[in-house]
Amino acid sequence: MNLETLTIVEARMALDAKEYSALELTNAYLEAIRAKDGDLPALPAGRHGGRQGIHAYLEVWEEVARAEAKRADERIARGESAPLTGIPVAVKDNMLIEGRIASAASKILENYVASYDATVITKLKQQGVVFLGRTNMDEFAMGSSTENSAFGATKNPHDTSRVPGGSSGGSAAAVSGGMALAALGSDTGGSIRQPAALCGSVGLKPTYGAVSRYGLIAMGSSLDQIGPITRSVSDSRIVFDAIRGRDPKDSTSIELAEHSKNKKLPVIGVLRRFSEHAEKDVLARFNETLKKLRASGYEVRDPVEASTLLDDSLAAYYIVMPAEASTNLARYDGIRCGLSVPAETIGDVYAKTRGEGFGPEVRRRILIGTFVLSAGYADAYYRRATAMREKIREDFVHTFANGVDVLVTPTTPSPAFTFGEKADSLAMYAADIFTVPVNLAGIPALSVPVGTVDREGKNLPVGFQIIAPHGGEETLFAVGADVEKV
Amino acid sequence: MKGTINVSDLAKLARLLVSDEELAKLEREVPAILEFVGKLPDSGTFTREGSAVLRNVMREDGEPHESGAHADVLLKAAPNVIDGRVVVKQVISREKSH
């Protein structure tokens, strides 16, 4: 088996045909992690910073993974395998698995042991998945490079002087580097699609509510969504089908209506003016893909212009998200769970615990969020942003109502950037320009790799973003599979 | 916007202890970010009630589970516990007489 190219679809066939066992497959991944990722067995989190290797993982569960693989083999032997039985998967460090640490790459949760399983984990356990380990991320999913991890950044497998993207950078690097067959990420403003694009993987941000958020450490609750990072579009669908569905424990979750498969090829609309924010050669890969899609029979409407509201998405997002994040992060107070710094008064316990436990970007966003929600400013900032958000959502609805089935943009304006290149917060925020409108609108989008661009002699992957209306995942998979082919 | 934000007060409001050194940095960064997001135009649909489509969804009223069913496991996550209770510092105190 070649772990750099293996897909879930191929592994499923091989496992069911007994070409190799789930244990052998798992051991192969554990060996790859040992060889590529850095020091193992897992040291206590926090001692990884600066080590050699990709550093996709914060912790690897070798023994438990082997035990899970053995159970999967028994199930396969009984002929009862589910699509993901025995498939080795990595999990972003912000999803809870009972009895294991989930730190959100933060000092404040460094030693937090999860009290229960996230719903996505319950669903994967039911299928007999093998959990390889928890992957690195920007602290509390705040960032686009993993540089905000409290435990050291992850490196891009395509060029280790560059970031893997973020916040699900560890998940994307694990898949891209042949250290997991698939991974779960979470996407609040692009945190699945952007790292997938920068690492050359497939990333899906599902419709808001399609996947339960129960047991996901919350950042922006009206924006967060869990989704898969995989090596192919077919694999993306398999993982999505495994984790989706209405969950009574997440009242915002929904059961997506079954879409009857369209016989006609979907009509592609190009957000042309908006896409011009991308660097020249990134745009060239995008245009080549469009040309090939047209040649293979797709109707491509270019340009389809949504209003200029898309340009305002970034500002609206960077108000709504910190407002929700600062509210969600109020729970980390040194009393209920995680780090607790002793102090004289209860107020000082709060302030010292949060002051020591949260990293710089989290602190910035808490302050911004506190400000935009504060009396006297909430009208000018938070309420104005939520109103704009509604306009952006309507804008997408209107564009889709005009006979366009999917909209496309490059996933990111540039390929992977170097460490420290975007030290300024606003420069980092701009990396999300193409992905945030999708979260604001609650609609699904898929990033599919479309070749590479050259930076200092290295070939760096770029992504093609396909956006569908609410519940349009099937259309995304259909178009995505064709993008993969051309 | 610049110069009108008291970051020190904001940090107190957010219950965040910030060192003097960091405060100096934040006094540059926070206004810069607010200036950027403050450019957001008024879409003209602003309502105090919020948007019609985006709404809060609550679970149904009633007891979701038996009282105490998860108490032990949740207490295990708390930093300081005595006799099945989470320990907190005194919240209300009598004014100290000096």
Automatic annotation (TrEMBL), chain A:
Keyword ATP-binding set for record: yes
Q: Name the catalytic site residues.
A: K92, S167, S191
**InterPro entries membership:** Amidase, Amidase_CS, Amidase_dom, AS_sf, GatA
Taxonomic superkingdom: Bacteria
- Specify where the region named Disordered lies, as residue ranges: 148-169
Can you provide one Gene Ontology molecular function annotated for this UniProt record? ATP binding
Question: Would you tell me the Gene Ontology cellular component terms?
Answer: glutamyl-tRNA(Gln) amidotransferase complex
Protein EC:
6.3.5.7
Pfam families cross-referenced by the UniProt entry: Amidase
Q: Which GO terms describe its biological process?
A: translation
Segments forming domain Amidase: 52-476
Tell me the enzyme class: ligase
Which keywords does this Swiss-Prot/TrEMBL entry list?
Answer: ATP-binding, Ligase, Nucleotide-binding, Protein biosynthesis
Catalytic activity field: L-glutamyl-tRNA(Gln) + L-glutamine + ATP + H2O = L-glutaminyl-tRNA(Gln) + L-glutamate + ADP + phosphate + H(+)
Enumerate the PANTHER family for this protein: GLUTAMYL-TRNA(GLN) AMIDOTRANSFERASE SUBUNIT A (PTHR11895:SF151), TRANSAMIDASE (PTHR11895)
Assembly information from the UniProt record: Heterotrimer of A, B and C subunits.
Its biological function? Allows the formation of correctly charged Gln-tRNA(Gln) through the transamidation of misacylated Glu-tRNA(Gln) in organisms which lack glutaminyl-tRNA synthetase. The reaction takes place in the presence of glutamine and ATP through an activated gamma-phospho-Glu-tRNA(Gln).
Q: Which family does it belong to?
A: Belongs to the amidase family. GatA subfamily.
NCBIfam families xrefs: gatA (TIGR00132)
| Name of the molecule in the record | Glutamyl-tRNA(Gln) amidotransferase subunit A
User: Where does this protein come from, organism-wise?
Assistant: Candidatus Kaiserbacteria bacterium RIFCSPLOWO2_01_FULL_50_24
**Per UniProt, what is the name of the gene that codes for the protein in this document?**
gatA
UniProtKB/TrEMBL annotation, chain B:
> What are the recorded Gene Ontology BP terms?
regulation of translational fidelity
Q: Which residues form a coiled coil?
A: none
Give the matching InterPro entries: Asp/Glu-ADT_sf_sub_c, GatC
Pfam families per UniProt: GatC
What's the name of the protein? Answer: Aspartyl/glutamyl-tRNA(Asn/Gln) amidotransferase subunit C
Which lineage ranks, top first, belong to the organism behind this chain? Answer: Bacteria, Candidatus Kaiseribacteriota
